[in-house]
Design goal:
The protein is built from 6 helices and 5 strands. By secondary structure, it is an alpha/beta fold. Strands 1-3-2-4-5 form a 5-stranded mixed β-sheet. Strand 2 (18-23), helix 2 (30-41) and strand 3 form a beta-alpha-beta unit. The protein is elongated, with a radius of gyration of 17 Å. It starts with a strand and ends in a 7-residue tail after the last helix.
């Protein structure tokens, strides 16, 4: 999706649980083309691109940046790898587009099992249990330590 200005960018970011935005003043450069190639090849994720100086300033990014915005966990992940390495960018999107700890449901199951990471650790606990908060807190710490290697 082409995002004309900072308002369109904000609206796009608010449109889904997570989105990926490329900030490129020149959308014809090699880095922007690699980003757009990934966007075209990924039907699961919403991608937007903007060349707006106002959007670049508002989101405090530099030209030729990619950011994954989400409504959970850290709320934002800035990509720091090579923008021309499509595989690394794809892995970044896959890893950060899922919460650190996922609730297993019919809706989340396909995303959990179709990704690159094939190791999963499941926790079965009643949310109404007195021990839930402390167990979940410890589980989340372990999940953070193993992010990118295992899904929780």
């Amino acid at each position: 999706t082409d995002l004309a200005d900072d308002e369109a960018t904000e609206k796009f970011i608010d449109s889904a649980d997570f989105v990926v935005v490329g900030f490129f003043k020149d959308s014809d450069n090699e880095k922007a083309k690699a980003f757009l190639d990934l966007a075209r090849s990924d039907d699961e994720t919403k991608y937007g691109i903007t060349s707006s100086d106002a959007a670049i300033k508002k989101y405090e990014v530099k030209d030729n940046s990619v950011v994954l915005f989400k409504k959970f966990d850290e709320k934002r992940n800035d990509y720091t790898g090579s923008l021309t390495d499509k595989n690394a960018l794809k892995k970044f999107v896959q890893m950060n587009s899922l919460p650190i700890v996922n609730e297993f449901t019919e809706k989340t199951a396909p995303r959990l099992f179709s990704g690159e990471i094939k190791s999963h650790l499941l926790l079965f606990i009643n949310k109404k249990s007195d021990a839930y908060e402390s167990v979940y807190s410890e589980f989340k710490k372990v999940a953070e330590e193993h992010r990118g290697k295992m899904l929780f």
